[in-house]
From TrEMBL:
It comes from Neisseria lisongii. It comes from the Bacteria. The keyword Oxidoreductase applies. Its EC number is 1.14.11.64. Keywords: Dioxygenase, Iron, Metal-binding, Oxidoreductase. SUPFAM superfamilies: Clavaminate synthase-like. This is Carbon starvation induced protein CsiD. It is an enzyme of class 1 (oxidoreductase). GO terms for molecular function: glutarate dioxygenase activity; iron ion binding; oxidoreductase activity, acting on paired donors, with incorporation or reduction of molecular oxygen, with 2-oxoglutarate as one donor, and the other dehydrogenated.
Amino acid sequence: MHPVLPEPKCSGNPFSIMYPHSQQPALAKTVIFQTKAWKQPFSPQAGKQEDEIMTSVTDITPKGYRIAPHEHSRRLQVVTLQADTIAEFIRQTERFPVQALEYKPFNRFRVAEILDSLCEYTLGKFLLGTLKNRATGAFLLKFEGGDKKDTDFFVKLGTAVSHLIGRPNFDAMSQKYYARFTVRNVDNSDSYLRQPHRRMELHNDGTFVDEPTDYVLMMKMQEENMQGGNSLILHLDDWAELDKFYNHPIAKKPITWEAPPSKNVTQSIEHPVFIDNDPNGRPRLHFIDQFAKPKNREEGLYLFELGESLENDPNFVSVRVEVGDMLVVENHNWLHGRDKFVAHPDLLRELMRQRGQFVA
């Protein structure tokens, strides 16, 4: 029996309040999100004194799927593909085994087209719009029906979703457009990715590569004897000390980033922790604690304190991802991490990752 894990407390943020499933608002055709829009140039202190309310409206009627806010955060949208959509997707993609997706990149866009057509071309618009809307920027995709043990189907479905929102980058760790990796009870790797008994710190992906990483897709492929290990996510606008670290002298100075050998990336990259602001002048983060190589004490202490601030922030959201579910986040507005697992000699959890750039 799974233990009841404590959920994070949320400090009055309208997007991070918790309410029972039975009290969730009914789905309407027009879903309205509100967030604060800062005037350029971005200055958090000044912005908070003269902020404007920006309302983003997504006017989409779901076809073949349902949408609802997550029970722990209204920013996170839960998208559930209906059983008939999944059944027809399986039938129409039978001719595309995983190898066909790996060897012929255009097949990946074909399976995406099939899925979108089954949803009357509303799904791609909703998913991409959700990610590009800073007020939301994340979704948890589930499906009804199908085989919850068919990992080849999971690869197909994950591929379809990732190609509706963009194009995955080549993953040097796996030498494919996606990576699958397993967490077990014992680990001797060279990063925290597979270590089960500690919290994996909040971070952004793609810090050590020289191509854009706009989104990250994480799909659970299988699990055995697993307790704990929830995904942890924190929206940048909910980070209590964003102002402090954005306005620090180091915030926009280049930092060196370098990956360990297991990532199969040999070059070093330089970029600041806070990269170019978004079109509305709001900050975007590009940070991971493991791979930063500070040049001096000033950089080192800034990075240390930034990491400590993120890990101690109470506004993170703990998300249970079931087998077959995928959590997809905009990479520079959300940080993601993982809670620790309860020790078990036969612990196993496999995840598929696809991360890439928006192309639409």
